[in-house]
Amino acid sequence: MNKHILIVGGGYVGLYTALRLQQKLRTELRDGEVRITIIDPHSYMTYQPFLPEAAAGNLSPRHVVAPLRRVLPKVSVLNGTVTAVDHGERSVTFQPVKGEPRQIAYDVIVMAAGSISRTLPIPGLTDIGIGFKTVGEAIALRNRVLHLLDFAESTEDVEARRRALTFVVVGAGFAGVEALAELEDMAKHSTRYYRNITPADIRWVLVEATNRVLPEVGPEMGKWTLEQLRERGIEVKLDTRLESCEGGHVVLSDGTEFDAETLVWTAGVKPSPVVNDGGLPLDERGRIKTTTRLTVAGVTDAFAAGDAAGVPDVTNPGQYCAPNAQHAVRQAKVLADNLVRHLRGQELVDYRHKYVGSVAGLGLHQGVANVYGVKLRGFPAWFMHRTYHLSRVPTLNRKVRVVVDWTLALFFKRETISLGEMEHPRDGFRAAVATTRR
Ligand SMILES: Cc1cc2nc3c(=O)[nH]c(=O)nc-3n(C[C@H](O)[C@H](O)[C@H](O)COP(=O)(O)OP(=O)(O)OC[C@H]3O[C@@H](n4cnc5c(N)ncnc54)[C@H](O)[C@@H]3O)c2cc1C
């Protein structure tokens, strides 16, 4: 019988689960045994570890995403959002990008909706705050930094210039440190084209509520990263919280106050809101309660993995798998295999993966790594970071494009133009219409 498998989310887990099921359609699964649908607001999967490089202009934004329809020709891709799941009825509410919502029935659901920025009710956060999870945010930030350099060079207002050249990043995990390091490197490089801005004029502040940076690479390499950032002139404020940033006036818990026009918020993630409207059981952190076999606890015909799921870590009893790509991509493989076993009435297997450590890029030719206990810093770590992610980015097509981008960057200088007007493409035309006499 034709079973409908519905995958909610086309990110890491969604894409890799669908890819593996698609492979099985050619081998293990019988003709017409299943049909697969994937739902995501975007028509592409974002390879998030490359977002900092896209923000720095080392990679084209198009090359850090994988087009779902091209990669998954045997899967139906619907663009829109799942706003509610009625698992009792085996049906979801699908809100297309435009138009009326409709119900979509399924036999088996895979919850792969990932996470969103975890924010706090901080006064003013929406005035100047921006996240760093999507390709849109990464490119908007790049444009913003370059635009503010343009502005700073053109103004005679000293206060406005200082404010424009002050950038704050809150949260010193992967996303925050990599984004800050790449953007700082790009801005420093760009100053050579400005007559009255030097690297020393640009202020970068990293605010972290705990007493360490980049916990993903362990305490020793985290300490080394902290020293590196400080040597580069970045102000790193540990054990410090953002109290408010109303109208761009930043107030920190250590009493520091200053004005800034840009604040990047990367202080953690929380599950995508759809998990709250899922009628599926949640754990104490609001993630979908998941078993070691990647099924949703206590219900049948439902699987979950990735940032939206609380997956027990069998290699570290009592703990959960961290929300990262390392787990997401491996969970997707086990999930797809277990899903097929489930359809066959076979025994499912546990998801087992011991965290092997991490690599992080800290700007061109700079990085830090702690993988399988091997600790690297500087150029070797940066090289490892690039090779590892190149091996992981989905599809040969994307790998080639990424290599071409990097190779071109070896021979030509970085692009340092702000194309911020792409965010307001109709402004010029509107202004022209406004000048037209009636
Ligand atoms: C800047 C940055 C750098 C990172 N670097 C690393 C790294 O170096 N190493 C590492 O291991 N991890 C890294 N991570 C973390 C890693 O990217 C995530 O853990 C991983 O993407 C989680 O995969 P996922 O499938 O659960 O979620 P995602 O990949 O985020 O996919 C979720 C998908 O679900 C979609 N979705 C959400 N809600 C709905 C809905 N209601 N209906 C339909 N679709 C929905 C979203 O649009 C998205 O496409 C990084 C993250 C960021 C932001």
UniProtKB/TrEMBL annotation:
<keyword id="KW-0520">NAD</keyword>
<dbReference type="InterPro" id="IPR023753">
    <property type="entry name" value="FAD/NAD-binding_dom"/>
</dbReference>
<keyword id="KW-0274">FAD</keyword>
<protein>
    <submittedName>
        <fullName>NAD(P)/FAD-dependent oxidoreductase</fullName>
        <ecNumber>1.6.5.-</ecNumber>
    </submittedName>
</protein>
<dbReference type="InterPro" id="IPR045024">
    <property type="entry name" value="NDH-2"/>
</dbReference>
<dbReference type="Pfam" id="PF07992">
    <property type="entry name" value="Pyr_redox_2"/>
</dbReference>
<comment type="similarity">
    <text>Belongs to the NADH dehydrogenase family.</text>
</comment>
<keyword id="KW-0560">Oxidoreductase</keyword>
<keyword id="KW-0285">Flavoprotein</keyword>
<dbReference type="GO" id="GO:0016491">
    <property type="term" value="F:oxidoreductase activity"/>
</dbReference>
<feature type="domain" description="FAD/NAD(P)-binding">
    <location>
        <begin position="4"/>
        <end position="331"/>
    </location>
</feature>
